Please model this.
Amino acid sequence: MKQGLEPRWDVRNLPPHFQTQLKVHLDYMFRQPHINTDMRAILMDWLVELAEEYKLTSETLFLSGMLVDRSLAISYGVEGFRGGEMMVQKDQLQCVGCACTMIAAKLLEITPPGADEFVYISDNSYKRKDILEMEANIVNSLGFNLNFVTPYHHVHRFLAASQASSPCSLSADRAAMRWVNTMPSMYDGKPCHVLAGLVHVGLCICE
Amino acid sequence: MPKADRWSSDEEEIVLLSLLPKPISHLDEGTYGVVWKARDNATQEIVAIKQIKFDSDMTKEGFPISALREIGVLLSLSHESIVSVREMVVGSTPDKVFMVMDCFEMDLQAAMKKGPGASTPFAQSEVKYMMRQILSAMAHVTSIARKYEHPARNMTQMVVTLWYRAPELLFSESCYGPEIDTWSIGCIFGELLIKEAILKGTGELDQIQKIFKLLGTPTDDEYWEQLWSKQGSTFKWKNNDSDLARTFAVNSFSATGQSYLSPDGFDLLSRLLSLNPKKRITAEDALRHSYFSCGVTEQVPMFYV
Model:
């Protein structure tokens, strides 16, 4: 273990049930007839831009990506207050992204962007009310379990071990986020192996 | 996600089934919402249900940040001495959100003031029992929080109730960690001994004066010199010597209505109430302190059984 690595980031110290949370199974897409993995990839890519725009930390970014997958995996509305099965429509997907980033930012940022910022950044595609409703929906359907260990814990560990400079680390972890989320096949194999590879590639490009 | 009607026949309001008479059922009104006592119709267990307060936030900024974080933290904790959130329940509209928690008849303050044996000081064994519970809970929280927290995130100063607020926070220290919580535990330790809050400041300035009066003004202390010079402080604090040994006299029997305190206990108290946060004992180390391994054995407090 090299210097500069804080033990709190060591994934191996986490309780086992946190470690298994890392893996996302994308077969949930079969239950979402109106969207597909390509649309999800575009959304994830947009989330990276959103994070850059509002200077959100990488932690927030990875958590919001995680929340998107978790909430899409649960066909919410099944038991919720809206009643009846509710699928995510194509034009609602970006709204899911906004709401997930809003939740992640509220949990992790010192000054999270307000609801109106999300209305603005989505080019007024949604009203504030839409985003807030989506937020309530997501929070409820996830049963308020919002603290996940994200791939970022791995990424951070590998970056610290590589002793890369900080601007280099930042671009490498943003790159890792894009790859992780835009290529579904990245989720095959052990998450930590895949991520170690991604961080390595990211660093090679940056240097 | 269970629906509220498991606890209620009426979906519209969380008027809970098998509610006890109202004055008893309405337990308390906390910072975030009203707490109710209710019976779970499925298991017949008595639970506490807390409705999250939504102010105008819900229409403007959505789910309140403080509630979101509190729920997130409580759901990820699991410790015998920490109240557990059994589940989250939603009502008919998104602004009706309830936390279902274990129900306790009283909090520590009520136990001190109203519980059976309230007129007599706690026995040494009882104080030890409670201190171990508090410290092991805190050690658990610290170990979990380390996995989520980011040091740079600690920016606000308006944390912790004034009487339990660590001195460095009163001097606007912006980078703090679990030490502020061990200070609070020290305050509670003292409070358990004399059954009264030990530092009842009326404002921030008065709080600082009370702290320095009890523990002495930090002179020749590296940490405080650095903090004050960093802030360019022009205040001159009256030089006091520590009053701690007189306030919490070791081995004194309860002529003054105070619990018996062993020398080990006094040592632990003074380590918890260390003015220098760098030297303050951690919850983990406090549990290994000889106070717990020597002397009288712990005993479940009277109000608890």
Remarks:
- Residues 108-304 of chain B form a domain with the Transferase(Phosphotransferase); domain 1 fold (CATH 1.10.510.10).
- Chain B has two domains: 4-102, 108-304.
